[in-house]
Automatic annotation (TrEMBL):
<dbReference type="InterPro" id="IPR016169">
    <property type="entry name" value="FAD-bd_PCMH_sub2"/>
</dbReference>
<dbReference type="InterPro" id="IPR036318">
    <property type="entry name" value="FAD-bd_PCMH-like_sf"/>
</dbReference>
<keyword id="KW-0274">FAD</keyword>
<dbReference type="InterPro" id="IPR016171">
    <property type="entry name" value="Vanillyl_alc_oxidase_C-sub2"/>
</dbReference>
<dbReference type="GO" id="GO:0016491">
    <property type="term" value="F:oxidoreductase activity"/>
</dbReference>
<dbReference type="Pfam" id="PF02913">
    <property type="entry name" value="FAD-oxidase_C"/>
</dbReference>
<keyword id="KW-0285">Flavoprotein</keyword>
<dbReference type="InterPro" id="IPR004113">
    <property type="entry name" value="FAD-bd_oxidored_4_C"/>
</dbReference>
<dbReference type="InterPro" id="IPR016166">
    <property type="entry name" value="FAD-bd_PCMH"/>
</dbReference>
<dbReference type="Pfam" id="PF01565">
    <property type="entry name" value="FAD_binding_4"/>
</dbReference>
<dbReference type="InterPro" id="IPR051914">
    <property type="entry name" value="FAD-linked_OxidoTrans_Type4"/>
</dbReference>
<dbReference type="InterPro" id="IPR006094">
    <property type="entry name" value="Oxid_FAD_bind_N"/>
</dbReference>
<keyword id="KW-0560">Oxidoreductase</keyword>
<dbReference type="InterPro" id="IPR016164">
    <property type="entry name" value="FAD-linked_Oxase-like_C"/>
</dbReference>
<feature type="domain" description="FAD-binding PCMH-type">
    <location>
        <begin position="42"/>
        <end position="220"/>
    </location>
</feature>
<dbReference type="GO" id="GO:0071949">
    <property type="term" value="F:FAD binding"/>
</dbReference>
<protein>
    <submittedName>
        <fullName>Glycolate oxidase</fullName>
    </submittedName>
</protein>
Amino acid sequence: MNYKRLDEDDLTIIRSIIKEEERILYAEEINEEYSHDELSDTVSYPDVVVKVISTDEVSEIMKYAYENNIPVTPRGSGTGLVGASVSIEHGIMLDTSLMNRFLELDENNLTITVEPGVLLMELSAYVQDRDLFYPPDPGEKSATIGGNISTNAGGMRAVKYGVTRDYVRGLEVVLPDGKVVEFGGKVVKNSTGYAMKDLMVGSEGTLGIITKATLKLLPLPKKAISLLIPFPTLEKAIRTVPFIIKSKSIPTAIEFMQREVILDAEKYLGKKFPDNSADAYLLLKFDGNSTEEIEKDYANVAQICLEQGAIDILISDTNEREESIWKARGAFLEAIKGSTTYMDEVDVVVPRGSVNEMVEYIHGLYKEVDIRIKSFGHAGDGNLHAYILKDDLNQEEWEEKMKAAMDKIYGKARELSGQVSGEHGIGYAKKSYLMESMDPATVEIMRGIKRAFDPKNILNPHKVCQI
């Protein structure tokens, strides 16, 4: 596309739509944070940042952009890890973080309707105060719900409860030409035509801009207990996971972690972890409506772990212990980032039966490519996070070794019938690996869907499957 670069005439039109001048950032007013996301080294500034507060504003901006071939990039909190919210072609960045209202809590239908800028932690607290439960639990609690939906975020509770897509009932969406449409609704079942709502979930802002979301809720579990289980080696820990999965006592979460990452988290938080003496750990969580119900489940799983070589079973049955363990787990990403000069991430997912092979492969890879790699992940659903660390490497060495490590990890995932991303998406940074892993016919179908929604390719160009 021959995109139009923003000029003073365009800015005048934008100011006529957005009445408050402070919600428009132009030229040197644009903060450096708007040029990148949380991790990716993809850097590009938008020409203007518009902080929208309503569906009407989003619609009017998109109508004008569509008519004038101006690229538009939607953005929430900017916590993404693959460059999906970076303005590659400059143009307009639509910041939806001020669209943060709770619109309706429908306890009869167990749904809540929110704007996209509501933060995950705000939503979780809001419904929990009303004895309700929003199960998706991505690690970054300051992410917006719009961003979670756009990447189909997963999180630690996916092994029992599923991912974001499983809790999206309905969406209000502004299309690239400014039209406002609704996909889905409050109904539990829907076989009415194509699954347009599900197509929007995980589309990373390339097909439309989410302005409202109706989400499914559950009754709040009354009790939760976690088990921190030390193992003498990573291999013993990870090889226990398939036995847990095959049992009839499925935990809410099954996380794996290594001692070196726990030490990073202790340093980052300035607090001791309940135990850091073992080489590797499984962290399991069980929830339910009574202690007796949970104890029956975790006793079975604890026995399995001991039979597979666990050193001990540490039970976290108080709020203080729970908070200590899970706060440390939630800090892993920032802790690893703070332990090196720069890092890049692999977010692969493999079938659950292959998770032990994938973890062991990643663990041994650093010797082969001569670069530090730290990993942790959601062992219960096969989604693994491997962080490749730059440390003191010069730029040439870093790019060479980082690419070698990524090529091998993604190659191993393909060998195990895995996928490029389990929850962080493709964005701009991981496109080449998507192309390698996916049938060209499937890629062309995806590009056809993009053309159907956005024939002028103005919405978040160069992302996911676009060259």
